UniProtKB/TrEMBL annotation, chain A:
Protein name as catalogued: Translesion DNA synthesis-associated protein ImuA
Domain of life where this protein originates: Bacteria
InterPro entries, A to Z: ImuA_translesion, P-loop_NTPase
Length: 234, 497
């Protein structure tokens, strides 16, 4: 009994909250609140799962990590939900020559391609869209990513309408698990699970990832015609 | 023993063509090129005829002998032959470009070539300003065969873009005769070599003029006649030099030659293809030299903190440009940024004719500067990855985005390669992350947050389109690219992530 307890005590995979967070390098996301909740940012390698709808600024959230870090290596997009536009990549700050887009026909192939990209040491970030990653597969990706100092962003559908779906609910042996929602003009990030840290709910982020009409509105409001011009009709 | 003898019959011409190619097929250089070079003939005949796609005639002229010593295909088409005088060449082709022949420049180029070959072959002898000898028999063992060894050497020579004649024989002297004869055949069988050698004319041997004349007078015109003579007979009539040459030709003595040893410091010389007037036009040539330096440093695991460029002029004394860096560096990019800053304020006193890059102080890259490994950019890994993905998933599943020169969303980014693909990507903040294959009817209620942007397709298209694009947001916060067509129908076309 005593022996088994001490074995458990000394097991290297059990992390205790009282232990000081390790002095490992982290990538800041550029949002103060979120970085604070994540102990300074996301870890530099490993798998990050993001449950989100497509098109709510989920890639822009990771802009700093994708386009500013380790730029000498490639970025792979595996199974993207649409045709990725090259001018968008350029606007995002990515060198188009450093991008590889992979469109496999099956889920299995996309997992295989992701693992190959992670293991190749040519990519620093592999972005995968997949809905059916199970525990074993995510473990494989996590190991491949950490061993080769690469990052894997896994985008999945949110489980809002699929509470009964066990695959979507289960926790995975990965570095970080996030959930994104759009509520009241802001992006809400929930940290569901993170290594060496506590979960945190509803961190509101104000991030403008598309152009807006503010400049036009401002111009219209501040440049109202004060007096009648000579040729004015009304 | 087996020696290969390489005869670079037009090394000045090759370096000139390589240098003019390296700056690209840039027309602005071409026009300068023409304007700068010495022209012969009257200007009335010397007008350039547009529409002629021939290669421009280039010749190398030796002032000492008043002979054309090298000429390219363009000159050959005009009828210029080696051995012609300058006036004859000028009469045949008034627009001919003339490079002055310099033995010293050829020797420098040859030494650079020897540096390039040295990692592959150990015993190199620089014979004259345009000939090299390489000992092969001691290397065959390491390469596992004559064929492998020779293909390694020729591959390296082809990469350095020089044309040459070569031959192999049991001694340098014998190989020399064969190479000058233009044998161009790799031969390691003794009898075959002997057969070929015996057919060669005596004029190609390195015997002095007097000896040759004496031999011709008695009817000896070919090598086989000479080799058939008994040595003691010759010994009575000719001096020691002739005898030792003949024994060397037979391969009976061990050669006493100075083997080439690479210099301990880096030095690379480039003859500019045209006179460069300002420093901006000098930069591409300097970048090329930096490339050689980076290669040199990388192979030896070194880096450096000082470089020295020497710029030579026709009359003015040479300028030394020293560039120092606070941190020892090895890559082209890091040095190039410093170079452009340094060279900005420089004014050349007169057009430059050649540049030399010198580097004496090296530092080894130590384990402590770990960025050497973390920034290791592995092109091989990239190619391997793409190859592996293509092999399993098929070629059409893996691609790199290409940009075409248009603002139409549908054709902006395509995988197919067409002529309109521009080299640089443009940025535009209204381009969506993902584009649907075909527009879908807009069925959700949305709020417009940006727009309108009106795009007309080009008038020469069969179905001209006029669309007003907006960025709209749904209840769930999804931002889409939507548009209203001419019939006031709303469509969704893309997503912003």
């Amino acid at each position: 009994m005593n022996k088994s307890l001490s074995m458990l005590e000394n097991h290297p995979h059990i992390w205790r909250a009282r232990e000081q967070s390790q002095q490992e390098e982290r990538f800041s996301l550029g949002f103060d609140q979120l970085d604070e909740a994540l102990n300074g940012g996301i870890s530099t390698s490993g798998v990050i799962r993001i449950r989100t709808l497509t098109g709510i600024g989920e890639l822009s959230l990771f802009k700093h990590v994708i386009s500013k870090q380790r730029t000498h290596k490639m970025i792979a997009f595996v199974n993207p939900p649409g045709d990725i536009q090259a001018p968008w990549l350029a606007t995002f700050g990515i060198d188009v020559k450093q991008v590889l887009i992979v469109k496999p026909s099956t889920e299995k192939e996309s997992l295989w391609a992701t693992e190959q990209c992670l293991k190749s040491t040519a990519c620093h970030c592999v972005i995968l869209w997949s809905n059916g990653v199970n525990t074993k597969e995510s473990r494989r990706l996590q190991v491949a990513a950490t061993h080769n100092d690469a990052l894997c962003l896994l985008f999945t559908r949110p489980n809002r309408n699929s509470m009964h779906n066990s695959a979507a609910l289960q926790t995975l042996p990965i570095s970080l698990d996030l959930c994104l929602n759009y509520r009241q003009h802001a992006l809400e990030v929930s940290v569901l699970k993170q290594r060496h840290g506590w979960p945190k709910d509803s961190i509101a982020i104000h991030n403008d990832w598309t152009p807006n009409n503010r400049a036009i509105k401002w111009a219209v409001e501040h440049n109202k015609v004060k007096r009648h011009v000579l040729h004015s009709v009304s | 023993m087996l020696w290969a003898y390489l005869y670079f019959h037009q090394i000045t011409l090759d370096t000139h063509e390589k240098a003019s190619l390296s700056v690209g097929n840039n027309s602005r250089y071409d026009t300068k090129n023409e304007a700068r070079h010495k022209r012969t003939g009257e200007s009335a005949n010397g007008q350039h005829q547009p529409g002629k796609t021939q290669t421009p005639a280039v010749i190398v002229y030796c002032e000492k002998t008043n002979h054309i010593v090298q000429r390219n295909n363009g000159a050959l088409q005009q009828g210029i032959e080696i051995g012609h005088g300058l006036a004859q060449a000028g009469a045949l082709c008034p627009q001919v470009c003339i490079i002055p022949f310099s033995e010293e420049d050829e020797r420098l180029t040859l030494v650079q070539l020897a540096h390039r070959l040295y990692p592959f072959v150990s015993d190199i002898v620089i014979d004259t300003h345009n000939t090299l000898a390489i000992r092969l028999d001691n290397l065959v063992h390491y390469y596992g065969g004559h064929k492998e060894l020779w293909s390694t050497i020729t591959h390296e020579l082809n990469l350095s873009k020089v044309s040459y004649h070569f031959a192999t024989a049991w001694s340098i002297e014998a190989a020399r005769i064969l190479a000058l004869n233009g044998v161009d055949n790799y031969e390691c069988d003794r009898d075959n070599i002997k057969h070929r050698l015996s057919q060669c004319s005596l004029s190609l041997t390195a015997l002095d003029k007097k000896t040759k004349e004496a031999l011709t007078r008695v009817g000896i015109r070919h090598v086989h006649q000479l080799l058939a003579m008994p040595v003691h007979e010759l010994g009575r009539r000719f001096d020691n030099n002739t005898i030792s040459y003949l024994t060397a030709l037979r391969g009976e003595t061990f050669p006493h030659v100075t083997l080439f040893r690479p210099a301990e410091h880096f030095e690379h010389f480039t003859l500019l293809p045209f006179d460069v007037e300002n420093t901006q036009h000098l930069t591409p040539f300097m970048e090329k030299l930096l490339g050689y330096l980076a290669h040199y440093l990388r192979a030896r695991n070194l880096q450096t903190s000082t470089l020295c460029f020497q710029i030579d002029f026709r009359e003015h004394p040479s300028t030394q440009l020293e560039i120092k860096s606070a941190l020892p560096q090895s890559t082209v990019d890091s040095w190039l940024s410093l170079l452009t800053l340094r060279i900005e304020n420089e004014v050349l006193p007169e057009p430059a004719v050649s540049i030399t890059l010198r580097c004496d102080n090296f530092e080894t890259i130590e384990g402590s500067n770990g960025d050497f490994f973390s920034n290791r950019f592995n092109e091989v890994a990239q190619k391997q990855l793409i190859g592996r993905l293509n092999a399993k998933l098929g070629e059409e599943c893996t691609f790199q985005p290409k940009v075409s020169d248009t603002h139409q969303f549908e054709t902006m980014s395509n995988a197919e390669i067409s002529s309109s693909i521009s080299a640089s990507t443009f940025t535009s903040d209204i381009v969506p992350t993902f584009l649907f294959d075909t527009p879908k009817p807009l069925t959700q209620s949305t709020k417009v947050c940006f727009g309108p942007v009106r795009l007309h397709s080009e008038w020469w298209h069969e179905t001209p389109r006029k669309r007003d694009y907006f960025i709209a947001q749904t209840l769930y916060g999804v931002r889409m690219l939507i548009f209203k067509d001419e019939d006031n129908q709303w469509w969704a076309q893309g997503l912003f992530s």
